[in-house]
Protein 1
Amino acid sequence: MPLETSQLEQQIAIRTIALAGNPNSGKTTLFNAFTKLRQKVGNYPGVTVEKKTGALVLAKDRVVNVIDLPGTYSLSVRSPDEQVARDVLLGRTPDTPKPDMVVCVVDAGNLERNLYLVSQIQDLGLPMIVALNMMDEVERQGRDIDIVKLSQRLGVPVVPIVANQNQGIEDLKRIIAEGVDAYYQRAWKMAPDLEDEMKQLVKLFLEHENMTPQEAFTEALAVLSQRTEFKGSEELLSKIGIVQDRLKAKGLRARTAAIEARYDWIKSVLKSCVKDKNKKGPNFTERLDAVLTHKLFGWIFFLGIMVLMFYMIFTIATYPMDWIDAGFSKLGEWVTAFLPSGDVRDLIVNGVIAGVGGVVIFLPQILILFFFISLLQDTGYMARAAFIMDRLMSKVGLHGKSFIPLLSSFACAIPGIMSARTIESPKDRLVTILVAPLMSCSARLPVYAIMIAVLMPMATAWQKAELMLLMYLIGIIGACGMAWVFKSTLLRSQKPVFIMELPPYRLPSWKTVAIHMWERSRLFLKRAGTVILAISIILWALMTYPKHESMEAGEALRLSFAGQMGTMLEPVIKPLGYDWRIGIGLIGSFAAREVFVSTMSIVFNLGDDAEENTLREAFQKASWPDGEPLFTPLVCLSLMMFYIFALQCVSTIAVVYRETNSWRWPLFQFVYMAILAYMAAFLVYQGGRLLGLS
Ligand SMILES: Nc1nc2c(ncn2[C@@H]2O[C@H](COP(=O)(O)OP(=O)(O)OP(=O)(O)O)[C@@H](O)[C@H]2O)c(=O)[nH]1
Ligand SMILES: [Mg+2]
């Protein structure tokens, strides 16, 4: 095909380009640079688990679709997220057109492994550009890559870029706009008799199926490797069977032969294009890893970083929290002065402002939590945490890879559960999904924080941080324990081999951290302004009606609808040390955990005649009818236990439904976690009383 016409065709044809590549090679970073979107990036493999689409403006009136794909090491699929990448590249995804061009994002620091995928994608026959990313690191390591030669050897344009610094992006866009020639000749070869059999198969596919030569080749290779069962006509299948039998008779193993042939070719390419200028001793990452993945120091560092995080949560966050608190009080006073007394004023002051304000006040703590989580993700420490956890996880029958979804669940179980898609074994994936909500998510933070403040008002921030750490550890231990239970009963399967790669440490990009914190606080505030607001209004109404004007405030609350519900629940929760007012909070928080705090703010604003005290003071004053204090240390502990273990989150249930495709698992999860929560709270409260504690 003459070059000019092919380029012309490309120019008209290109509508969709796909960003493919190994995990952690910078695809999403490039996607964000292309589309100005803010998809999540992180320095560990498996950040992106769904395909995402955006628009790339090439010229004034020329826009193409860009698809960001989950990372994959090869096209032989092992996990659900890799399946997405493969299906899109092969044009087998119903809602996505087959890409007209692939931009293969390659980590220049890991050329050998990355070029393996490049070679596989080339075999698909799609026009391709290699975006050689992370060139800054290559330079720092003193390596020299001959771009022109690499491009010649691969037979595709190679563009050096530094995606996170926007370098090379314009070059890349220019070459995309120009279009590339799809002409391709396979460079790697297997042993002659295997190649002959391959030719036979390709011929069969071309004769019997409506395929391009590249499709026929890909299919033939898959059939040769006996990876996929091809579905076709009887005649074709029997002919394929003959070839397969012949291979077996000759003792030829096409699968390993193909892998070896590819790597041989890659090695020869690298030999001619890459030069190490100065060989050095262990690099920065290796030296740091000697400590951070050390059997003992690794754990000390991990726990240390968590204590530090909670310490910050109890110290620097308190100042902005006081300001927010003061702001909402002022707002309440202002509305009280401005509006005539009555239900409307009551709704706004005691329902909306107390409810939403009660949650928004925790924004500074949430910000600090996300600051730390972003750091863990962006520096590459996340993968190390999974690595040290692997020793613990292997005891329960899972591998460290399962710990990444669990760590992400510290932020929120929803992204955590979704990232379980990187797990190959369906059973292990299910176990991970089932235990992920046991990790303490950010919605628990307000509950823990307020309970710890009531429990030990005089303690130092370090002591509070340690108790908070304990709550998080109980969650981790609970998750591991339940994983062990599931792995040894319902979901028995072999213990998988761990192949988590440890990315190099990278300085966090402050922009990424800031964006992450911003996105998360936006979500948090949005939740406060929608879900929490709506529930606050409903609960306010339930707590206000039917009205008993003449009665004292606490008594009127008890006779309200919500009060009646709480009273009905009281016999069930009394063994945990809770009264009907806490019962109202529990009911509300089955929609979302933070609702506990907002409901309690409303309960104690309504039920208490003195309005200006803080929630902590109200808790400390609250008592049983006989005058005994309600929030004793044991009750606080028991409540925290309940919140560690209970699945009080409608959104999580919905996501588990989506990820497992049935109601069975989310229901099962809800029930087992409820039982666990009740038992834990019961044991702490009753056990403590037996020991003579209060
Ligand atoms: N030094 C350096 N770091 C980069 C560059 N491009 C991306 N990164 C960092 O590399 C890490 C991985 O980036 P991502 O864009 O999340 O990688 P990905 O390919 O989308 O990864 P998955 O979604 O897990 O497959 C992040 O920490 C980025 O900040 C680069 O050119 N140089
Ligand atoms: Mg990504």
Protein 2
Amino acid sequence: MAFDACFFDLDGTLYDSRCGMLDRINQLIDEWILRVIPMPREKVSSFRHDMFQKYGGTLPGLAVEYGSDYYASLRYCHNLKVEDFVSENPELRSLLLQLPGRKYILTTSYRFYAVRVLKALGILECFDGIIDAVDVFPAPKPAPEAFQRALQITAETDVRKCAFLDDQPRNAAAAHKEGFFAVQVGTEYPGDPLADAWIPKIEDLRSIPELY
Ligand SMILES: [Mg+2]
């Protein structure tokens, strides 16, 4: 049984998280924090952990609690040359083109960055739309509101006919709870029992019979 729609996380799901791009974004987020709130550098990591637990991300937390300009923070933290980290993936492109149903990106990053990454991977036109950090502010994944918002924006009315793929176990688990067919991608957290399926990497998409 194929699904009407598949929602894909971007970072660490559609490209290998070990390519260094997320490390660079994390450095930029650290810099942004120190611009907004002067604090000793060694406090940054625990501050980020708190914001992640409370808001699902550092940048929405900074905007809500400290009045940081959300758009400016997204622009600052995604200001990097994505082609230095990712390149065309014809295998993934072919898998996506064969995959039945509508395809969307559901990301907690910035739309303009997402477009650049998808373009660099050579898969931009495989997708029908992008739901980004601004669309789900102030409650990104794994908040139930983020998934509800994604369904609303895309006018997908039956969550049981939707799949969701993400490299973060807590996001896959949350999507499963909301009624999606949830797939966890990546070797970092193998075999999360709360997802409906697991693949080590996105190129293994075809091994999930429910999707094709
Ligand atoms: Mg991810």
Protein 3
Amino acid sequence: MGQGRMGQGRMGQGRMGRSDVRPAQVVRRAAEYLERHGVESSVPTAERLLSHVLGTDRAGIYAREGLTSQEAKLFGRALCRRCVGEPLQHVTGDQGFRRIVLRVRPGVFVPRPETEILVGAVMDELASVADPLVVDVATGSGAVALAIKDELPEATMFATDLSPEAVELARENALSLGLPVTVLEGDLLEPLPADLRGRLDAVVGNPPYVAEEARDTLPADVLAEPPLSVFGGIEIYERLFAQAVDWLAPGGIVAVEIEETAAGVVAKAAAREGFEGSTMRRDLTGRDRVLVARRPHP
Ligand SMILES: C[S@@+](CC[C@H](N)C(=O)[O-])C[C@H]1O[C@@H](n2cnc3c(N)ncnc32)[C@H](O)[C@@H]1O
């Protein structure tokens, strides 16, 4: 972005080296700039980037008198990064999820709002289970495991991921949030310690499930994610159900995020491994989002 548009040049300096331009006007100009570069949700994006630069929340932006030249420069740079297609969360380095804020970075999947439904389903299912033992497979940044631990502190949480970058980030997030979750590298449930076999109350996961053939239809923010975190299909669910049978306690559940059109196929895969009573959770638009299936009691 040219300094002449958003920088100090056009703003004029007031007291204390701050621009006289009111925050609402800064946001409006920035949103117009973002729109001209084809960025959607331009006002919330401008607000999020400005609150990141100012180290404040949305209300804090509008309480400010103006931007210093340094803040204006940093804001201009952040807008530029977003305008050339960098995902918003990579520019800010964080993403809110349920009640927590996770550190995110390129190379590890950015948690999406729809995955909060998965956490909600697990919270409901575990409401009557004392001190549950839970594993989040395909944990990425650790979002699901850490949100469950945050909302259900008595749970003992494990998390796994095949990607070393994801494992490193999930461990960092666990440490910085002060939420004890054991993060292990490997395929689905394989890295778990053997003494957990037959004892888990829940296996939870948002595995990669987008068909490779759908690549051309994906939005830019999904294409910016590592392919290992996006592309997959029924095979990963089949393997997960087959493994989970051995690790779950009788009555334990598998809860997985699914693509809206895959509900029937994933439910059949669960039934083939002996799981019972598959139920679906829908998102606000009525699309199937989460499947919950139970390992029967003998
Ligand atoms: C869609 S992302 C979900 C990340 C996180 N759970 C979330 O919802 O934000 C899928 C994750 O699965 C991981 N993954 C892919 N194949 C895997 C496997 N066989 N076992 C464990 N993790 C795997 C990827 O590295 C990626 O972090």
